[in-house]
Amino acid sequence: MAKGKAKGQKGKKITLKIAKNSIRISFDGGRRLDLSKMGITTFPKCILKLADVDELDLSRNMLKKIPSSIEKFQKLRWLDLHSNQLEELPKAIGTLQNLFYLNICNNKLTTKNLPEELNLLRNLRILNLGLNCLDSIPTSLGALKELNEIGLFDNTLTTIPNSVKKLPKLKKLNAKRNPFPDSTEQEEHADSVKRTEMLYLVQDKDLCSSCLKMCQDERVKLNKLKNVTPSPSKKPSFPLLLTPNSTAKDNQEEW
Asked: In degrees to the nearest 10, what's the CA dihedral of 95, 70, 16, 53?
């Protein structure tokens, strides 16, 4: 029994044949090596022979470390490492200059073990650092000028540097469930780059007759909708769902 347990701790051994059979073609024609949910505990060296893939998915495993040899994946555009047990990232990750998507959510990363070389990923569009142990965000991430989305939710952050909040192309910043000093600041960080259109308020007398009639018609329709009594919706049941979703999965899907 003890031997069986020891064997289980080693995780699944990935052979080159298994890896080759795990290559998929992504929607844009790229080659994705999908080794997610395989119970892997150590980075499979054999996949270095497949370093010409465009996407690499090692998510939902039990990896604690990514080796410096990750630099061999120079064509990599998409790297998913979420939901592992990573405590650090190698400096070599900064050499992946074609990377536009990096997901390292739901690991054990600390601010101290985030390599400064992350700021070299100048083509990065999406970065997910949520569900880790980060108490601060390096100001150097402000060098990622192409960044559109960044996830910082569920960490221990008390502030976010202006260099990150004011990135020129940033459209989405999710920093929910961090211990910011007050609720106002937390709300600001949760959607600090939310865009709103201008809203103009005018009196009825300032509208032309056709515009006034159109507004009145819309108001009548709206009132009718408000007066409609909704029918009681039947609560869906899932009798075959035995395992509830984890918090980590919920948050990952929310992102």
From this structure: -30
Q: What is the pLDDT of residues 74-119, one digit of tens each?
A: 999 999 999 999 999 999 999 999 999 999 999 999 999 999 999 9
pTM, rounded to two decimals: 0.72
Task: Say if CB 157 and CB 177 are below 8 A apart.
Answer: no
Q: Is residue 77 one of the residues assigned to a domain?
A: yes
74 is a domain residue: yes
pLDDT (tens digit per residue) in 21-41:
999 998 889 999 999 999 999
Phi, psi of 126 (to 5 degrees): -130, 125
71 occurs within a structural domain? yes
What domain range is 118 assigned to? 41-174
Distance CA(94)–CA(119), nearest Å, equals: 7
Asked if the model's pLDDT at residue 3 lies above 90, the reply is no
Other CB atoms within a 10 A radius of the CB of residue 67 amount to 13
Dmax over Cα atoms in the chain, in whole Å? 85
Rg from Cα positions in the chain: 24
Kindly state the helix (H) or strand (E) to which residue 67 belongs, with its residue range: none
Q: Pick the closest to residue 34 from 15, 49, 18, 48 (CA basis).
A: 18
Quick check: is 53 in a domain? yes
